[in-house]
Amino acid sequence: MVEREGFARSLVLDRAKAVSPPPSLGLDGIAVKNLLGGAVLKGHDPARLMEAAGIDPSVYGNANAAIDGRAYFRLVQQIQIALDDAFIGFLAEGCRLALEKERTRSYLHCATLGEALRVSIRFTQALSADIGPRLVEDDHFGVKHICSYQTIAGLDRDIFVWFRFVWIYHLFSWLIGRPLRLRKVFVQGRRATQINGFERFALFHAPVEFDAPFDALLYDRNDLHVNLVHGSLAEYEAYNAGIPDWFATPSGALTWRGRTEQALIQSQRCGDWSPPIEDVAQRLRSNPRRLRRDLACEGESFQQIRMRLRGELAGAFLLATDIPITVIGYKLGFIEPGSFTRNFMSWSGITPSEYRHRYRSDPTRVAVATTLLAERS
Fold first, then answer.
1. Three-class SS of residue 97?
2. Are residues 293 and 235 in the same domain?
3. Do 272 and 181 fall within a single domain?
4. Based on C-alpha coordinates, what's the Rg of the chain?
């Protein structure tokens, strides 16, 4: 969003996109209508804003139509530009784009994610009484980023909270060059359902508690110590100029963690589930000592990444398929069922059978698992 990084750039319209049919999966037309609520309240024509974003206006209010992640990004950007408001008209006191750009500058010069987050929160607290972010320590899991939004009466507060969370998630993921490891998402609203089955909160790859007492993102405490890999407004604007897909897993320039993950995933696809660091370092044109050092600078370790990738895939098989647990273990290269169980427990803290029983009924987790299997195949 404009918030998202210097959004004030000019959008070049692609008229072909404006007449192309909407995809079957994505944010439906009812949610799109609600997203445009602030702009409509301020007298703007939703059809014009959608056309400017390269979206067929017939999507508006249509539960059987939808927009994808890039179209969503363009639409948010057009609303922000039209209103000169990073908060898309949902708060009585908005945030002008020039001020949003200064806020962006303030945290781009920070060293770590934690520092950037705190600077951003302090700046936001000074913007308006209608928005009140704060960090709260959680002794057991991490750090809660609690957000208080006083939206204008009559507008869909739930869509605004989701919009803000998507922005926060993508922005700070981009800053560190990899997806944030959210431990949990808390939402005061109820689960949104769409005819096409699109799960909005599956984007965060984390458990979601609906009807919660507050709106918050629960960060992994280790992420707050990770160094930023981007540090200039020019980088941020170049990233936005590429029209990122906000429904996809966030990315930035590949970090050593990202490169290591890619190399390990390629090995896994070839049936090599535990390649040594020497082989991976050679593939990355590095050496084991340097790779360990570069990963450590990002708050990572080779062993943790290798175990996590294997564990994530195991969890995906458990939730998205009916494959027996012993067969899943064999598929992931474990000769002994007991070995698979021990390794899985070291990753998740519970046994494979407990994991399947506990989370199989959670549609958000199942959606995430299905996407992960498709990406790793």
1. helix
2. no
3. no
4. 21
**Does the pLDDT at position 38 exceed 90?**
yes
Domain boundary among 184, 209, 241: 241
CA-to-CA separations, 174 to 9, 70, 240, 251, in angstroms, rounded:
18, 16, 11, 6
DSSP-assigned states of every residue in 148-192: -B-BPTTS-HHHHHHHHHHHHHHHHHHHHTS---EEEEE-SSPPP
DSSP string, 333-374: T-SSHHHHHHHHHHHHSS-HHHHHHHHTT-HHHHHHHHHHHH
| Span 79-98, average pLDDT | 94
pTM, 2 dp: 0.65
- Measure Cα distances from 110 to 7, 107, 142, 209, 263 in Å: 20, 5, 21, 31, 30
pLDDT at position 29 is 97
DSSP three-state, residue 143:
strand
Residue with tokens 């390649």: 275
What is the rounded distance in angstroms from the CA atom of residue 73 to the CA atom of residue 83?
Answer: 16
Sign (positive or negative) of CA dihedral 122, 128, 129, 131: negative
- The CB density around residue 344, as the number of other CB atoms within 10 Å, is 27
Q: What stretch of H or E contains 234?
A: helix 233-241
Q: Tens of pLDDT along 142-169?
A: 899 999 999 999 999 999 999 999 999 9
The pLDDT of residue 128 is 76
For residues 21 and 65, give the distance between their C-alpha atoms in angstroms, rounded to a whole number. Answer: 9
Residue 18's pLDDT is 33
- Among 110, 76, 82, which Cα is nearest to 96's? 82
Per-residue model confidence as pLDDT tens digits over 242-296: 888 999 888 655 578 878 887 898 888 888 888 999 999 988 878 999 999 989 8
- Cα(185)–Cα(201) distance, integer angstroms: 8
Domain hosting residue 222, numbered range = 15-241
Q: Are residues 117 and 186 in the same domain?
A: yes
Inter-residue contact 359 to 320 (CB < 8 Å): no
Instruction: Fill in the DSSP letter of residue 93.
Output: S
Residue 1 lies in a domain: no
Q: Please state, in angstroms and as integers, the Cα–Cα distance from residue 188 to each residue in 21, 146, 157, 185, 370, following that order.
A: 34, 11, 10, 10, 26
In the chain, the number of structural domains is: 2
